[in-house]
Design goal:
Strand content: 15-25%
Distance between the termini: 23 Å
Number of domains: 3
CATH topology of the largest domain: Aspartate Aminotransferase, domain 2
Strand order of the largest sheet: 2-10-9-8-6-3-4
CATH superfamily of the largest domain: Type I PLP-dependent aspartate aminotransferase-like (Major domain)
């Protein structure tokens, strides 16, 4: 077994800086740029932009979120809107149909999440219900590109190597009514902090100076905490807009799908762990576990081997089990996939 070239750097975690004109990225072009889309600093801002646009012209009774969803986004939205309720979902079932007609009113908004990029986002809805789809973990997926929802949003920084970035659009190409926007002062500071963290991580990957790695982690954690407590809906600085746009022509999903195809031929069945979404639209290598103790054992085992999975998402309803994601994006190649498969196949409890 070859040693992963990224073993020392680590597999996963946040993106390091990469030039958008890098030879790693340029061969994989993306043509999906939603017409009349709006760029913002985060996926949360994108959701708020859409909701505020709607409430400018329509009285909304209830905003419905998936019961299983990012806890940070849920808490952030609940501090912004007092009229939020949740509904049950089936994250393991891409064909799950949200039977919204059984619990919503026509003056409601419902957010449908594209789980891992493979959900079909099916909804049985009454007339008048406004549907927002969240493609943060499904940017460029088939469901994202072919959406028939009233509105779509995504956190672009989940998929693109940018400090911050969110997007909102109407799949019919119409312009979203612009709500009130504030100056972006706080988000400019957060952007600068993450930019420094990405630069330090880039430097660490060539020098392996541990202080650069530690400082980058310190900065990224600081920035994340600031994002959780800043609720302003702001306009995007022109320079930041241009930065985001320079990465949007990259087909990051195509780069992932090649790695996922490689992994799918190597992974062995594991009685305690199911590999989800092994198809070209998948956000990453998604692992599902029913037991929290086993999940934590696997997570720590992988970290000890310099593979850093993210949990999607902590602090959720227990009946959904536990999901881990291992990043398999443009940063990694065939040897890295061999390394990931080797470690996962060797895991035991």
């Amino acid at each position: 077994m070859k040693t992963s070239a990224n073993k020392k750097k680590g597999i996963g975690s946040f993106f390091s800086f990469i030039n958008p004109k890098s030879e790693t990225l340029l061969p994989h072009s993306n043509t999906f740029i939603p017409e009349n889309s709006v760029l913002l600093y985060s996926g949360r801002q994108a959701i708020k932009y859409v909701i505020n646009s709607i409430t400018n012209t329509k009285n909304i009774q209830t905003i419905w979120l998936p019961e299983y969803y990012c806890m940070h986004v849920t808490l952030w939205l609940k501090k912004t809107y007092p009229n939020i309720k949740t509904y049950r979902v089936e994250p393991l079932n891409p064909d799950f149909v949200v039977k919204a007609s059984q619990f919503v009113n026509k003056n409601d908004i419902i957010l449908i999440n594209n789980f891992w990029g493979v959900s079909k986002c099916l909804v049985d809805k009454p007339d008048g219900l406004v549907v927002i789809e969240d493609h943060s973990h499904g940017w460029l997926s088939t469901t994202c590109i072919n959406s028939k929802a009233d509105y779509c949003v995504a956190s672009l920084r989940k998929s693109l190597p940018i400090p911050l970035g969110g997007i909102a659009w109407k799949p019919d190409g119409k312009i979203i009514n612009r709500p009130k926007l504030l100056p972006p002062d706080r988000f400019v500071s957060i952007w600068d902090t993450i930019t420094e963290a990405m630069t330090l991580k880039h430097d660490f990957e060539s020098t392996y100076e541990i202080d650069k790695k530690e400082k980058s982690l310190e900065l990224i954690n600081l920035a994340e905490k600031q994002l959780h407590i800043n609720f302003d809906l702001t306009h995007l600085e022109d320079s930041h807009k241009k930065n985001i746009e320079s990465y949007m022509n990259i087909n990051v999903l195509k780069l992932k799908s090649k790695n996922l195809a490689t992994l799918s031929t190597m992974l062995k069945h594991h009685e305690n762990c199911a590999y989800m979404a092994l198809n070209p639209d998948a956000f990453g290598l998604i692992l599902h576990l029913q037991n929290e103790t086993v999940m934590q054992q696997l997570r720590l085992y992988l970290i000890n081997h310099n593979i850093y999975p993210s949990q999607l998402w902590p602090d959720n309803v227990l009946r959904y089990g536990y999901f881990l994601n291992i990043h398999i994006d443009y940063r990694y190649g065939g040897e890295d996939m061999e390394y990931i498969a080797e470690k996962l196949n060797a895991f035991s409890i």
